């Protein structure tokens, strides 16, 4: 995508723009990984459930992974009968169980309590799994560590084998990874799983090893291919993966406009027509996003700030070759995942428009109005 041309062509700001050619490249790489390893690919729609993108993703995947009833209903609507819908969540509500059974092909219960209460209530055609916690931590920040102490996500291996024979399940689900750029953690996790359960794994139909790998940033896939293909051949399992950010993360751009500029305590501040509320993980993680126009050694340093009254609504210090002017457009890159799906309207600022960029140009997918805001309240 020619970012400079898109900034000029874009009729509105702020706007999310999703790059269809880059999405296709990611999907083709995943399809090659699937062919080489034998795995089944589920797109994790929690990262971005934009229906126009789901329609583009659908031909490349075996189904969708979901975490709630609404996600499951949307996934089934898109995939129809041409793929599977896999649910894993700690938050199953009893009054939603029938509806979940209607649209999900696979449900991984999260705890022994869920198993004891719900497993007999699932529709006969639903493939029953349990989420397990291998107690291997690869994430320093416990807010995002599914294997943290006192984790709510999955049950320990020992707790499972003390209470439920594997032959009463169709599958196991695990997820211990987060934005990994190599497959070492996968090898270690699968080694612990196979060392513990051994040949009992052959009693299962499937194993879901979750997401958390940025496959497009990993040059050598041999470890993944070997690990997954050995699981399949040794235990006759279907092995599912659930990429989300690996599919859409680098396809998304947030284009914003400078709407004010001034000096505060000796530093130049540029206020944008967007906000960290449109990129919530910037504030959540307290990280600085990537900016296309940033020049590491540029002579002009500017603190980019959002337009809400939150004092901490700032994107960070960036450098430029020339001073920023009111009306200049700037582009945050690699914001396709966990941005639009988390964005909100604090202070009443509207959500950005949403565009899909393809070889034929920009196509408006979504525009929000005052009426959308009013209906919330």
UniProtKB/TrEMBL annotation:
Pfam family, one: Orn_Arg_deC_N
Catalytic activity: carboxynorspermidine + H(+) = norspermidine + CO2; carboxyspermidine + H(+) = spermidine + CO2
Cytoplasm found in the keyword field: yes
Places the protein is found: Cytoplasm
Uppermost EC category: lyase
Annotated protein name in UniProt: Carboxynorspermidine/carboxyspermidine decarboxylase
Subunit structure: Homodimer.
């Amino acid at each position: 995508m020619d970012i400079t041309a898109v900034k000029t062509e874009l009729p509105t700001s702020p706007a999310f723009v999703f790059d269809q050619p880059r999405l296709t490249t990611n999907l083709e790489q995943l399809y090659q990984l699937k062919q080489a390893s034998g795995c089944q690919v589920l797109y994790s729609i929690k990262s971005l459930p934009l229906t126009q993108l789901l329609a583009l993703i659908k031909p490349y995947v075996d189904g969708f992974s979901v975490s709630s009833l609404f996600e499951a209903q949307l996934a089934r609507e898109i995939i129809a009968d041409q793929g599977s819908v896999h649910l894993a969540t700690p938050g199953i509500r009893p009054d939603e169980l029938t509806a979940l059974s209607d649209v999900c092909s696979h449900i991984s219960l999260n705890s022994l309590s869920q198993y004891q209460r719900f497993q007999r209530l699932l529709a006969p055609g639903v493939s029953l799994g349990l989420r397990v916690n291998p107690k291997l931590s690869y994430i320093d920040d416990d807010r995002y560590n599914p294997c943290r102490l006192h984790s709510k996500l999955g049950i320990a291996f020992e707790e499972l084998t003390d209470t439920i024979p594997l032959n009463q399940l169709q599958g196991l689900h695990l997820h211990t990874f987060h934005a990994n750029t190599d497959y070492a953690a996968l090898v270690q996790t699968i080694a612990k799983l196979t060392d513990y359960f051994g040949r009992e794994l052959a009693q299962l139909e499937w194993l879901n090893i979750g997401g958390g790998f940025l496959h497009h940033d990993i040059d050598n896939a041999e470890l993944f291919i070997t690990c997954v293909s050995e699981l399949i051949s040794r235990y006759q399992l279907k092995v599912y993966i659930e990429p989300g950010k690996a599919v859409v993360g680098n396809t998304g751009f947030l284009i914003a406009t400078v709407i004010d500029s001034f000096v505060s305590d000796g530093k130049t501040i540029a206020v944008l027509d967007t906000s960290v509320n449109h990129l919530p993980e910037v504030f959540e993680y307290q990280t600085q996003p990537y900016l296309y126009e940033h020049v590491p050694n540029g002579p002009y340093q500017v603190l980019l700030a959002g337009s809400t009254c939150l004092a901490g609504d700032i994107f960070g210090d960036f450098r430029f070759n020339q001073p920023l002017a009111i009306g200049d457009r700037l582009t945050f890159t690699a914001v396709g995942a966990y941005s639009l799906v988390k964005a909100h309207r604090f202070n009443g600022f509207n959500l950005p428009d949403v565009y899909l960029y393809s070889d034929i140009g920009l196509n408006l997918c979504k525009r929000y109005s005052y009426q959308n805001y009013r209906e919330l309240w």
